[in-house]
Design a protein that fits this description.
Layout (H helix, E strand, L loop, with lengths): L4 E5 L7 H8 L3 H4 L3 E6 L1 H11 L4 E5 L11 E6 L15 H19 L5 E4 L4 H6 L7 H9 L5 E6 L2 E5 L9 H4 L2 H17 L7 E4 L14 H15 L4 E5 L4 H7 L4 E4 L2 H12 L5 E5 L5 E3 L17 H13 L5
Parallel strand pairs: 1-2, 1-5, 2-4, 3-4, 5-12, 7-10, 8-9, 8-10
Antiparallel strand pairs: 6-7, 6-11, 11-12
Helix pairs in contact: 1-3, 4-6, 8-9
């Protein structure tokens, strides 16, 4: 069986992206899961490979066809290239934002052409990205713009727990109005599809409350009564294995105990605080789905403070690449 071809973007060149990509792709087990083609600056990837002492030969390619098959080689398709000696690691600069965006665009074009079936994206810095003149709020929104097809949504995975927030990057005061029965139900349906594609069993989903103590019977808010519980009942009627509302402070402990493989949470930090605490010991990933190809990235930033010092851990990047390979072609 042929391995999927995965585009791996180098991310913000002044951050840890190039070195964690280089280090991850030296792993022999990872190279058995896919044929990776790095989308980035070949000169910088050469420097990154030397930094991590990975020993792979950097080969510049013009196409993804046939790329990534040799585990002794790191194939790089040029995008986001910078002039020699231009890079200043650990600094903010519009040029780094433009380079990262160019890598994303090229990866999407490869996916549109059918040359790759998934994308693993190293982190880029949103401030540098916006300094370059881009208006998209974040990387998921930018990938959605580049694909210009589908409706992107975010899923996270850590320690075998799959999460998705009903709301994403919005002001906290806007959250209650965005938590609707239809929105909660849509997230239950999409997360169930992801769990089954990932072969997570049993595909049981816990739907997390919005308010403290699940609203305490309406004392602290009625969203659980008027919105979340009706969405759960509708999901059960449709045949989904779903429970809740689950108290927010118990959701991750219950999932770690094995009660749930998936959690539908009401807002970004409700999902990410738990994911990041658990992820200190076990690498996790973030997924942008709903587009023609899955995009998987790491739940951390560019780490300018340690960039290009050989200190960055690559385990999350390796998981991102492996997850992109596992979900490629699954219609997510």
């Amino acid at each position: 069986m042929s391995r999927p071809v995965i585009a791996v973007t180098m991310g913000d060149p002044a951050g840890v992206g190039p070195e964690i990509v280089a280090r991850a792709l030296t792993e022999r087990d990872l190279r058995q899961t896919c044929n990776p083609v790095v989308v980035g600056d070949p000169r910088l990837m050469f420097r990154a490979m030397e930094l991590v002492r990975g020993g792979l030969t950097i080969r510049t390619v013009q196409t993804a066809a046939g790329a990534g098959a040799d585990p002794e080689t790191l194939d790089v398709l040029a995008a986001g290239t910078l002039p020699p000696d231009a890079l200043k690691p650990g600094t903010l600069d519009a040029r780094w934002g433009e380079a990262a965006a160019a890598c994303c665009r090229t990866a999407v074009e490869l996916a549109k052409a059918g040359a790759v079936t998934g994308i693993a994206s190293a982190p880029f810095n949103k401030e540098a990205f916006h300094m370059a003149g881009y208006k998209a709020m974040d990387d998921m929104t930018y990938f959605e713009e580049c694909f210009a097809k589908g409706e992107a949504y975010q899923v996270g995975e850590v320690a075998g727990i799959w999460t998705t927030p009903v709301t994403f990057h919005v002001a906290f005061r806007a959250i209650p109005d965005l938590v609707t029965k239809e929105a909660v139900l849509a997230k239950i349906r999409s997360l169930d599809k992801v769990l089954k594609a990932a072969k997570a069993s049993p595909a049981r989903i816990g739907v997390v409350a919005l308010n403290v103590h699940c609203g305490e019977g309406g004392m602290f808010g009625r969203e659980e009564i008027d919105v979340i519980a009706p969405a759960i009942q509708q999901a059960k009627a449709e045949g989904f294995d779903v429970a809740g509302p689950v108290p927010p402070d118990s959701a991750f402990p219950l999932a770690l105990r094995g009660d749930y493989k998936g959690l539908v949470l009401m807002y970004h930090d409700q999902a990410n605080i738990g994911r990041k605490i658990i992820g200190r010991d076990q690498p996790g990933v973030s997924l942008f789905l709903g587009m023609p190809a899955p995009v998987v990235t790491v739940p951390h930033g560019t780490a300018y403070d340690i960039a290009w010092k050989g200190l960055a851990k690559h385990s999350m990047m390796a998981r991102a690449i492996a997850t992109a390979a596992a979900l490629a072609g699954k219609g997510l």
